[in-house]
Amino acid sequence: MKKRLCFWLISVVLLSISGSLLAQDYEYHPALSDNFSAILGAMRSSNSFKVEADSLDPDNSLPEDDVDFEDSLGVSHRSTLFNGQIRWKFGKTRKWSLFGQYFSNNATGESVLTEDVKWDGVIFREGSFVGAGVKLAVARVFVGRSFFKNAQNDFGIGIGIHNLDMDAYIEGEVKIDDETTEFQRVEVGDSQPLPNIGAWYNFSPARNWLLHARVDWISANIGDYDGTLWNTSVGVGYQAWRHVGFDLSWQYFNLNLKVDKSDWKGGVDMTYSGPVLAMIFFLQAGSIGAVMIE
Known about the structure:
The structure is a single chain. By secondary structure, the protein is mainly beta. The protein has a single domain, classed as OMPT-like (Lipocalin). Helix content is 7%, strand content 66%. The protein is built from one helix and 13 strands; from the N terminus they run H-E-E-E-E-E-E-E-E-E-E-E-E-E. It has a ten-stranded antiparallel beta barrel with strand order 1-3-4-7-8-9-10-11-12-13. A hairpin with a 5-residue loop joins strand 3 and strand 4.
């Protein structure tokens, strides 16, 4: 941990020195003029998890629960998670952009059940001690074009893919019959790419300041999945040095999905929302120390 911290501090210092030696070659925020940016951030998220897993046995008529993993199973509703993003502008006029984003969260908890929980064809008995967890990893790739772009503004729309890697489990004493129980771990999960449409808008009111917003959305029935996805953010950035800035934004991610697969029949309703504090690195083709993008 100390080595990583030293590495980032040295990187910031070197970029700061190079930035001070270069002329301030931008009139407005570099997000509007530079062709590559990378964001390294930490998100303090407020979470909500509901996961349904119906029995796959056609002879099992047991009505299943849409289990609230926070209220019923004690899974933590607060997380601090890594949030990384990149953007590369390309083309002769740099109106085309390739975006990438990745974040993941692994929330766990323990609880003594106050009522029976019916999940994936089994019953976790009231009064038993259970452990539970929910994991979601999101990898987003997005390609778009700027349709309104000048020194202060950048508005664009595009299409993308969210690859979702989802897992949920409950472990504890399972009711076998009226007199018998045994310890079991019941787990469901899947990995699935979902297409989406989206838009973004950046505005620089002054040399070092940036206001930005974006939204990704889909509502569709695709194969074994039927539901809605939202991935949005709004924030403000400040350019401290030529190649280094800071950003504070609010991100909201919601996935409401029904699943009908051979190994999982049910659905999820997951929400992650909260502030993201980030450091942003900008590179411009031809700058000292920059990677030549074009």
